[in-house]
Design a protein that fits this description.
The protein is globular and about 50 Å long. 37% of the residues lie in helices and 16% in strands. It contains 13 helices and 13 strands. It has a six-stranded mixed β-sheet with strand order 4-5-13-10-11-12, sandwiched between helices. The protein has a four-stranded parallel β-sheet with strand order 8-7-6-9, sandwiched between helices. It has a single domain, classed as Rossmann fold (3-Layer(aba) Sandwich), CATH 3.40.50.
């Protein structure tokens, strides 16, 4: 059962027909997929999930693919929700959980969005895809495009993690390394896409990546027996995962699956690139381009998210906040989390741990609140970043690893 109704501009609310390729609205607003949730509620319920596959496609009635044969899946979704005990005790959080998206295909949450986007490309007859990426989205698109037999054209900053570059080449993608940021990569795609016949799957410039990512919200509700936590921490570069979850919560309330209660949404950025934090603090609806963006957390190096107004809307409505941490803080937090709980997370996920420590210390959050941190990728994909904490030494005596922790 597919309940896709139409697409709608997130800014001017103009309606677009389903079944056709779409990028942005004429006003520049990202398009959001809308469903006939009344039909879904009448014909689909939570009990149905007991027989559903253990992937994000268990929520197929509220995903846009109309024909199952067009689904391109590598087993994405339904990732672990893990209770943190030692980190929680160390920082004073009594009910702390980690949603580990690093367990997805290609090692990050990007697999969800690109599974959905590539599936819709197959359904709509699109043959060539192009994407600017800070790393993990490129890896995911290359993998799903390879599975679907589509051309993948990828533009990444030259200093992306080596794992992302090697993955994309191994999947047979056409890869161009660019001297600059993801914004410079996006300009190249925009300039060349019409002449090359590429469909642009940039963040929020097509409507379906957000649909895959919203399944993180459905899963979280299901894993907590349909009661959402008090607080969600989300590492925010493009912020589509946060936007998608907020959309999922609205859909689930309409379906009658959850109550109207919402978690406080915490958008976490790096000090070297914090356009959303600045906009939140200045009480503006949109962010300004962050000049000379720099951070070791490559997924957070997005100078201006296209969906910034949607991120800020969710954060403010939920009475959450936007907060930035330094590279030193996030790397320290990542190493300490691995030592305490055996979870080696991406620097972006580690940034959330550092941010949580700050918000607990300030009193913004209370120790008894149920808190979920989204780790968006596997730490093994960021060895260059973490290597700054573990320089190799001659001889057998290592002493304190990187000056951070002493091995037991």
């Amino acid at each position: 059962m597919n309940t896709l109704s139409h697409l709608e501009c997130s800014r001017c609310l103009k309606r677009f027909d389903k079944g056709l390729p779409h990028n942005l609205c004429e006003c520049g607003g990202p398009l959001l997929v809308r469903y006939d949730l009344g039909k879904a509620r009448d014909n689909w319920n939570r009990d149905w999930l007991q027989r559903a596959p253990s992937t994000m496609w268990r929520y197929a009635p509220v995903l846009p693919v109309s024909r199952p044969e067009n689904i391109v899946s590598l087993g994405e979704g339904f990732t672990p929700l893990l209770r943190s005990r030692r980190t929680a005790a160390r920082i004073g959080a009594r009910d702390l959980w980690i949603k580990d998206e690093g367990m997805n295909p290609t090692g990050s949450f990007k697999a969800r969005g690109l599974s959905c986007a590539v599936s819709m490309a197959v359904e709509l007859g699109i043959k060539k895809l192009a994407i600017p990426s800070a790393g993990n989205a490129a890896s995911a698109m290359a993998a799903y495009a390879a599975s679907a037999g589509l051309e993948a054209h990828i533009f990444m900053p030259r200093d992306v993690p080596q794992s992302n570059y090697i993955e994309c080449k191994a999947y047979g993608a056409h890869v161009t390394l660019v001297d600059g940021l993801i914004s410079d990569c996006a300009k190249i795609v925009a300039e060349r896409k019409d002449g090359e016949g590429w469909f642009d799957v940039s963040t929020l410039k097509e409507p379906y990546r957000i649909e895959g990512k919203k399944t993180m919200g459905y899963e979280l509700a299901e894993q907590f027996q349909w009661a959402l936590p008090d607080v969600i921490f989300y590492p925010t570069g493009g912020g589509v995962g946060l936007i998608g979850m907020w959309k999922a919560f609205q859909e689930m309330e309409t379906l009658g699956w959850i109550s109207s209660k919402r978690p406080r949404m915490i958008a976490v950025q790096a000090e070297g690139c914090q356009p959303v934090v600045r906009a939140f603090n200045e009480k503006t609806e949109r962010s300004e381009f962050w000049q000379e963006a720099q951070t070791l957390a490559s997924g957070l190096r997005v100078p201006k998210p296209l969906g910034d107004f949607l991120i800020l809307e969710a954060v403010r409505f939920s009475e959450g906040c936007a907060i930035a941490v330094s590279d030193e803080e996030l790397l320290n937090a990542g190493v300490q989390l691995a030592t305490d709980d055996g979870l080696f997370v991406a620097p972006e996920g580690a940034a959330c741990v550092a941010a949580l420590e700050k918000l607990l210390a300030s009193g913004f959050l209370k120790p008894e609140e149920k808190i979920v941190i989204y780790n968006t990728g596997c730490g093994l994909k960021y060895l260059e970043a973490y290597s700054t904490r573990f320089p190799r030494q001659s001889g057998g005596e290592e002493g304190k690893l990187g000056g951070l922790i002493t091995p037991r």
